[in-house]
């Protein structure tokens, strides 16, 4: 009897040790093992996932896979489901347009492309508005230094702002304005030109600032291009015609100089001419004989203007 009890005790201890210490966590009694619990949890998650609703991104991914497999109609149906779940999903419209193109549905693809561009444009505009608001605050922070004429420090601040926002013209324009005050005209011109390259619809002030620096640097042909842009935007603006007159005289294109001088006289109420400009332009004209009708008319019309000493705007 004692032997039987001893054997049972030994066997019980064995089962306990196996239950608690075995590496496979298979328990012969007590609570479910960690292994079994993990299996149950994994199976539960698997079943739950089957009932999760498909997202727009899920359908989009399925559409992309169908596109790669050449199943265009199936791809279109998946992209349509993605759009149904998220009407502002631009990539879904774009991919659906590509699929429709390949199927020859050009009317449908055109509509999808247009929707894609409209959504992207709206998103970009909203993003740009946020960035420009932050940029505007940074630029305004430099104003106290400008008021105190600490221009070199302002240039450093604007340079730091540009490094943070290199794709926006405002920083370049601000730095160019200060470099113009410092008479660093080449640096100013580089920034104005950069700003022009970053602006889809340049304003008259930006064209004017660029043209004025080019004129000062005697880059008259470049200045002419920007003054012309200004009068295209505002045909009644007299000052660009005045500067075009001088630019064409200085490049010795007297016919165009006369044409712009007449436009200036027609547009301008004051009909002023700066004395220093008259002297410079007349020096060029005097190199030629008065037999040239354009030169003679230029001289006559220039003398009819009102001479002023101050620098014109």
Principal-axes shape call: elongated
**Cα distance spanning the termini:** 122 Å
**What's the CATH class label of the domain at 216-313?**
Mainly Alpha
Query: Could you name the ranges where pLDDT drops below 50 across 5 or more consecutive residues?
Result: 20-40, 45-52
Report the radius of gyration as a whole number of Å: 39 Å
CATH architecture of the domain at 216-313: Alpha Horseshoe
Mean pLDDT: 86
Spatial arrangement of strands, main beta sheet: 1-2
| Helix fraction bin | over 70%
Structural class label: mainly alpha
Task: Give the biggest sheet.
Answer: 2 strands, parallel
Order of helices and strands: HHHHHHHHHHHHHHEHHE
Question: How many individual helices?
Answer: 16
At the fold tier of CATH, the topology name of the domain at 216-313 is Serine Threonine Protein Phosphatase 5, Tetratricopeptide repeat
Classified in CATH, the superfamily of the domain at 216-313 is Tetratricopeptide repeat domain
Strand content: under 5%
Q: What is the strand tally?
A: 2
In short:
With 313 residues, this protein is mostly helical. It has helices at 2-21, 34-50, 56-68, 72-85, 90-102, 106-140, 143-147, 151-164, 169-181, 185-198, 204-216, 220-233, 238-250, 254-267, 275-285, 293-303, and strands spanning 272-274, 306-308.
């Amino acid at each position: 009897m004692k032997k039987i009890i001893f054997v049972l005790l030994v066997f019980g201890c064995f089962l306990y040790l196996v239950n608690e210490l075995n590496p496979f966590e298979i328990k012969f009694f007590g609570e479910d093992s960690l292994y079994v619990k993990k299996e149950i949890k994994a199976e539960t998650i698997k079943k739950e996932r089957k009932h999760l609703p498909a997202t727009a991104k899920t359908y989009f991914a399925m559409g992309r896979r169908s596109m790669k497999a050449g199943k265009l109609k199936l791809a279109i149906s998946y992209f349509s489901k993605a759009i149904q779940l998220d009407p502002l999903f631009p990539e879904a419209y774009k991919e659906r347009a590509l699929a429709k193109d390949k199927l020859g549905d050009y009317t449908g693809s055109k509509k999808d492309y247009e929707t894609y561009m409209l959504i992207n444009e709206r998103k970009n505009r909203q993003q740009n508005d946020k960035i420009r608001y932050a940029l505007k605050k940074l630029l305004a922070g430099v104003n106290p230094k400008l008021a105190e004429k600490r221009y070199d420090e302002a240039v450093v601040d604007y340079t730091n702002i540009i490094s943070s926002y290199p794709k926006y013209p405002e920083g370049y324009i601000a730095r160019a304005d200060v470099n113009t005050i410092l008479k660093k005209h080449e640096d100013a011109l580089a920034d104005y030109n950069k700003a022009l390259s970053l602006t889809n619809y340049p304003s008259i002030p930006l064209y004017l600032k660029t043209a004025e620096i080019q004129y000062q640097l005697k880059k008259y042909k470049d200045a002419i291009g920007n003054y012309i842009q200004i009068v295209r935007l505002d045909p009644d603006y007299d000052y660009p015609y005045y500067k075009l007159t001088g630019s064409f005289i200085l490049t010795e294109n007297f016919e165009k100089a006369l044409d712009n001088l007449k436009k200036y006289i027609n547009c301008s109420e004051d009909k002023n001419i700066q004395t220093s400009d008259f002297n410079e332009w007349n020096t060029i004209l005097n190199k030629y004989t008065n037999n040239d009708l354009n030169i003679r008319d230029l001289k006559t019309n220039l003398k009819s203007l009102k001479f002023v000493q101050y620098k014109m705007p």
